[in-house]
């Protein structure tokens, strides 16, 4: 059992090529899961679709059990939002066995991709140069898909305007952009509350993305004296305290 634990710890926490490939594989699995959620919303609940649900649920279960096995204090893992996201994803994927699940909770599985930030910074200069834009875009995308899932889960079957995931996505985007064509509306008090959340939170995230897109590009390099993080690409002195900087030039890709 100890050997198995050590092998798992190497895969999840190691710094060699194999663990890095393994963790990128987990990210690819999460993205494929998201694609399956969208596609399966157009399909009838046939045994094949439910079987894939169960297989993915089993894979997520194996992942969280592996993480608990290598954790020195497993109880602390349940203080992490990502752990509860995993549990919600498991319950949703195994819903064909225990009953109807809240499919939108599966998107919470993507929260674990934020743990790859350090690796992405090290592996991709494009990510390092555009980190703030990419993170703002991911935050907006996660919010859109979570709210789309909530709209689909709460309105599908009782709102004729929400027939599939794309209908819910269409409503979310038109609300977020305040376009509001009016051809799709949510029913009931809960529907109105969801609409308010989409408009307020969505516009905030959208404005954040616009802000990082249009402001002048700066590099992230902490000043050794005052700690200022962002500087012009050709800065030789910190504009806050005047300390000399030695910002590395990555050169051409």
UniProtKB/TrEMBL annotation:
Gene Ontology biological process terms in this record: action potential
Keywords: Ion channel, Ion transport, Membrane, Transmembrane, Transmembrane helix, Transport
Subcellular location: Membrane
Entry keyword Ribosomal protein: no
Domain annotation Potassium channel: ranges: 141-214
Molecular functions (GO terms): voltage-gated potassium channel activity
Membrane topology term: Multi-pass membrane protein
Protein name: Ion transporter
UniProt organism field: Methylobacterium indicum
């Amino acid at each position: 059992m100890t050997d198995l634990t050590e092998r798992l710890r190497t895969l999840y926490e190691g710094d060699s090529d194999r663990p890095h490939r393994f963790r990128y594989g987990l990210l690819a699995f999460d993205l494929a899961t998201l694609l399956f959620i969208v596609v399966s919303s157009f399909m009838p609940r046939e045994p094949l679709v439910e079987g894939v649900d169960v297989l993915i649920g089993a894979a997520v279960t194996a992942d969280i059990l592996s993480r608990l096995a290598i954790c020195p204090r497993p109880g602390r893992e349940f203080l992490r939002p990502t752990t509860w996201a995993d549990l919600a994803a498991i319950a949703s994927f195994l819903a064909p066995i225990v009953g109807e699940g809240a499919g939108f909770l599966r998107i919470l599985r993507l929260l674990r991709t934020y743990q790859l930030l350090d690796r992405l910074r090290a592996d991709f200069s494009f990510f390092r140069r555009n980190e703030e834009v990419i993170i703002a875009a991911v935050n907006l995308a996660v919010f859109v898909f979570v709210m789309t899932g909530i709209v689909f889960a709460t309105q599908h079957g009782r709102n004729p305007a929400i027939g599939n995931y794309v209908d819910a996505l269409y409503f979310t985007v038109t609300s977020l952009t305040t376009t509001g064509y009016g051809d799709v509306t949510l029913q009931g008090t809960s529907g109105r509350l969801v609409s308010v959340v989409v408009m307020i939170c969505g516009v905030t995230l959208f404005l954040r993305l616009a802000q990082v897109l249009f402001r002048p590009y700066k590099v992230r390099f902490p000043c050794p004296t005052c700690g200022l993080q962002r500087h012009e690409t050709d800065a030789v002195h910190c504009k806050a305290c005047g300390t000399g900087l030695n910002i590395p030039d990555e050169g051409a890709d």
